Amino acid sequence: MATAHPPILFNNARLVDPATGRDGHGSLLVEGAVIKDLDWGAVAGVPEGAEIVDCGGHVLCPGLIDMRAFVGEPGAEHRETLKTASEAAAAGGVTTIVCMPDTNPIIDDPAIVEFVQRRARETAIVNVCPAAALTKGLAGKEMTEFGLLQQAGAIAFTDGARSVTNAQIMRRALTYARDLDALILHHTEDPDLVADGVMNAGERASRLGLAGVPREAEVIMLERDLRLLRLTGGRYHAAMISTADSVDLVERAKDAGLGVTCGVSINHLTLNEFDIGDYRTFFKLAPPLRHEDDRTAMIEALARGTIDVVVSDHNPQDVETKRLPFADAADGAIGLETLLSAGLRLVHNEQVRLPALLMAMTSRPADLLGLPQGRLARGAPADLILLDPDLAYTLDARTLKSRSKNSPFDEARLEGRVLMTYVAGRCVHRYVE
């Protein structure tokens, strides 16, 4: 069967396969939508007429898989659409987005899952996988129809930025998910403890005169969930942890053999509460940016493999919701386009090795979601990025692909540019100076 485009040979590349940890010089051949061959040297038997891409010694690795992105469509297209989110993703090296159900209407019905998939096929240039709501209307009172939503294409179940406070509902959700081998993604913040808090509780919050969010808001919810997981079995993923105490809980649960994994946002790996400065609302997040000790604990946990996944927590907000007093501004920051560049700070600082960082952004989320992407292997989807990890630039919000511009890295100096992004063997982004 003829392919829609000629084979592509990537020559002179630094191949990094996060799934195996292998990192070395080599070549890779793409035919159609899949990786046909790769060699830690030179690919033999290149088809006639193949397009030759000289990688110039730069990193060739799988495209990133972002397990937590809020996209406005449907219902808030003024903030972001599937099209603009996918363009931002491609520019940042993200080839698969898991979009959260916090839309209007909420993704709690099979018809809405199918709508998102159809719109993504029509307008998006990267893969879009909808996560369905855990409870109807994200209200935390009644479970959604997991089986029907899964059949429609929901890749996981979550209430997005909301926590399920009813322990009986969470117990039932974990039980049903276990029987369907479905993955529960949960936002671990007790809303009653969060209350009117807007930043990390502590001396910094007191100095700024802002209400604080105690670390216990996260820890108590996470500990409850882990006890329920022990009761029910199944697979549970703490969407974003941000404290050293949470790391300890996850490590103990893993040692006990529970089916628990966890993620961290790129913001909590690279920023802390002092970055808020004089009430800079682009740094207002949920969970809030923590103390430097907590940030350091997150980095160490990622380096030793306790933290499984790094996410962008892409949450576009327009000027009307961000240009407000800090306490009144909406939570959230965009991050698809800067996920990898910000993460490379840890590599350049020799805190995390490049294959380990990429594993948390590629093969590990692929394994959790049951996706074939995220690895350099014969027959794997040709979702690839060519990365210059040393190319420095200063982020200019005017050049961002995202419709909203609320980036915490605005005007920051970053190192690492995605030169090319391929999805199913097709180039969807090419960096031009």
Short description:
Keywords: Pyrimidine biosynthesis, Zinc. One of its GO terms (biological process) is purine nucleobase catabolic process. The chain has 433 residues and is of the alpha/beta class.
List the helices and strands and how they pair.
Elements: E1 8-17, E2 22-31, E3 34-39, E4 51-54, E5 59-62, E6 64-69, H1 82-92, E7 94-99, H2 110-123, E8 127-130, E9 132-133, H3 146-152, E10 157-158, H4 167-180, E11 183-186, H5 191-194, E12 199-200, H6 203-208, E13 212-213, H7 216-232, E14 235-238, H8 244-255, E15 260-265, H9 266-270, H10 292-303, E16 309-311, H11 319-322, H12 339-348, H13 354-359, H14 363-369, E17 384-394, E18 413-423, E19 426-430
Parallel strand pairs: 1-4, 1-5, 6-7, 7-8, 9-10, 11-14, 12-13, 14-15, 15-16
Antiparallel strand pairs: 1-2, 2-3, 5-17, 17-18, 18-19
Organism: Chelatococcus asaccharovorans
Keywords: Pyrimidine biosynthesis, Zinc
Protein name: Dihydroorotase
Q: Overview of this structure, please?
A:
The protein has 433 residues and is of the alpha/beta class. The chain folds into two domains: 8-60 and 381-393 and 413-430, Urease, subunit C, domain 1 (Roll), CATH 2.30.40.10; 63-369, TIM Barrel (Alpha-Beta Barrel). The chain has 14 helices and 19 strands. It has helices at 82-92, 110-123, 146-152, 167-180, 191-194, 203-208, 216-232, 244-255, 266-270, 292-303, 319-322, 339-348, 354-359, 363-369, and strands at 8-17, 22-31, 34-39, 51-54, 59-62, 64-69, 94-99, 127-130, 132-133, 157-158, 183-186, 199-200, 212-213, 235-238, 260-265, 309-311, 384-394, 413-423, 426-430. The strands form five sheets. Strands 1, 2, 3, 4, 5, 17, 18 and 19 form an eight-stranded mixed β-sheet that branches. A four-stranded parallel β-sheet has the order 11-14-15-16, with helices on both faces. Helix 2 (110-123) packs parallel to helix 3 (146-152) and helix 4 (167-180) crosses helix 7. It is globular and about 65 Å long. The two termini are 38 Å apart. Keywords: Pyrimidine biosynthesis, Zinc. InterPro entries: Amidohydro_3 (IPR013108), DHOase (IPR004722), DHOase/Allantoinase_Hydrolase (IPR050138), DHOase_cat (IPR024403), Metal-dep_hydrolase_composite (IPR011059), Metal_Hydrolase (IPR032466). It comes from Chelatococcus asaccharovorans.
